[in-house]
């Protein structure tokens, strides 16, 4: 007789609810977990134990029935199930190497994924998880790999967690002689792919590539792979969290410690006249191929508009050529008054409106609901994004 299947979700980043297990058919029915007050309940991540190696397990996913919150308004209806239902789920036997399942089968509001497991347990998730421990291990590894990198903390979160940050520069140039580059990911905790994009950026930056060395020698780079650290750790969605979404919190009086700390450091770069490139990394809606979200040009002045468009041209030119192709649109979406009432408090918009005349500030979204939305695919986007930063800055006048 086969062992009883069990589900565990008592570890960092885990999230699941309404679990029902049919031991005969080996079907696990569930919904995403998470407190709606702490963001959209679309993230799911748990461990299945009691598997006979080689057997087939089915995951039967339903969208959360939890009522989501409208910022500044009353309770709304449940989140659309599509946010929780990738075409392919993600799984791992060891919690480190993540693979896609075959495409799920959708029947109404239920998606069923089938996995043949070659172990006695398996981790399953909405997408490849990237926890605070992953971020800490990565910045520490980069710091140990290169004496040009320093693993540090952006701050401590409101719940007391460290927010890992990497500071990178090479050579004897003074700060005044260096371009300022700020890269951050995961202002929305469920968007795990954005942290993998950030990791790809950091891996390329500290590689032996001559262009990477140029960037390290001519710039000072700040790198934060997870901003919403508390919701990432606790398996909450983060998007539209109360009392404020992290990416709606870039105001004169931010609520979140991470935003306060990032805003302070970015303001320092602005005051020094060297806030050159600011990149805020996200994942978009389920079928949205848009890669760049920008502040509408009517709110900006030259040379900022031309420099922004040049950066988009260079970045799109590189990333669109990744093989196999990652589908995305080269036409940015604007995030002005028609997009959201708090558009001024989006991080990239705040930096654009408060930055230097030459500042390029962008929100970059990497598609998640696609066959190449894997750790390798995301990291390839990050590496090409970093190379585009180098190419863009190499066109700018070198600081005296």
Account of the protein in words:
This protein has 400 residues and is of the alpha+beta class. It folds into 2 domains: 6-125, Immunoglobulin-like (Sandwich), CATH 2.60.40.3120; 132-394, Aminopeptidase (3-Layer(aba) Sandwich). It contains 8 helices and 20 strands. The chain has helices spanning 132-145, 192-205, 210-218, 229-234, 257-271, 304-319, 347-354, 375-394; strands spanning 6-8, 17-22, 27-31, 45-49, 56-62, 67-69, 75-78, 90-92, 99-100, 105-107, 110-116, 121-125, 149-156, 162-168, 179-185, 219-224, 275-282, 292-294, 333-334, 360-365. An 8-stranded mixed beta sheet has the order 13-14-16-15-17-20-18-19, with helices on both faces. A 5-stranded antiparallel beta sheet has the order 1-4-12-8-9, with no helix packed on it. Strands 2-3-5-11-10 form a 5-stranded mixed beta sheet, with no helix packed on it. Strand 13 and strand 14 form a beta hairpin. The longest helix is centred in the last third of the chain and has 20 residues, at 375-394. It is globular. The termini are far apart. The mean pLDDT is 95.
């Amino acid at each position: 007789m086969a062992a009883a299947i069990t589900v565990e979700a008592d570890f960092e980043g885990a999230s699941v609810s309404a679990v029902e297990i049919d031991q005969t058919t080996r079907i696990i029915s569930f919904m995403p977990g998470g407190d709606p007050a702490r963001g959209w309940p679309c993230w799911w991540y748990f461990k299945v134990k009691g598997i006979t190696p080689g057997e087939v397990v089915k995951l039967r996913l339903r969208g959360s029935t939890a009522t989501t919150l409208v910022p500044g308004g009353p309770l709304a209806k449940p989140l659309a199930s599509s946010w929780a239902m990738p075409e392919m789920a993600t799984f791992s036997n060891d919690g480190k190497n993540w693979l896609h399942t075959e495409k799920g089968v959708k029947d109404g509001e239920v998606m069923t994924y089938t996995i043949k497991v070659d172990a006695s347990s398996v981790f399953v998730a909405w997408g490849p998880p990237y926890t605070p421990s992953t971020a800490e291990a990565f910045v520490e590894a980069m710091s140990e790999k290169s004496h040009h990198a320093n693993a540090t903390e952006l701050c401590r979160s409101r719940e007391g967690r460290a927010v890992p940050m990497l500071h990178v520069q090479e050579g004897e140039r003074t700060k005044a002689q260096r371009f300022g580059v700020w890269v951050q990911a995961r202002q929305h905790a469920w968007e795990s792919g954005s942290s993998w994009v950030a990791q790809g950026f950091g891996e390329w930056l500290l590689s032996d590539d001559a262009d990477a060395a140029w960037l390290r020698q001519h710039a000072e780079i700040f790198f934060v792979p997870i901003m919403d650290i508390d919701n990432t750790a606790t398996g909450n969605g983060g998007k539209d969290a109360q009392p404020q979404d992290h990416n709606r919190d870039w105001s004169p009086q931010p609520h979140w410690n991470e935003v306060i700390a990032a805003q302070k450091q970015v303001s320092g770069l602005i005051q020094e006249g060297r806030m050159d490139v600011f990149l805020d990394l996200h994942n978009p809606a389920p079928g949205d191929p848009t890669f760049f979200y920008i502040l509408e040009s009517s709110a900006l002045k030259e040379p900022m508009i031309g420099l922004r468009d040049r950066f988009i041209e260079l970045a799109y030119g590189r990333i669109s050529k990744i093989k196999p192709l990652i589908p995305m649109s080269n036409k940015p979406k604007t995030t002005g008054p028609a997009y959201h009432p708090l558009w001024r408090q989006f991080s990239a918009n705040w930096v654009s409106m408060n930055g230097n005349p030459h500042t390029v500030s962008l929100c970059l979204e990497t598609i998640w609901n696609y066959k190449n939305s894997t750790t390798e695919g995301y990291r390839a986007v990050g590496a090409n994004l970093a190379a585009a930063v180098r190419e863009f800055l190499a066109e700018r006048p070198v600081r005296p």
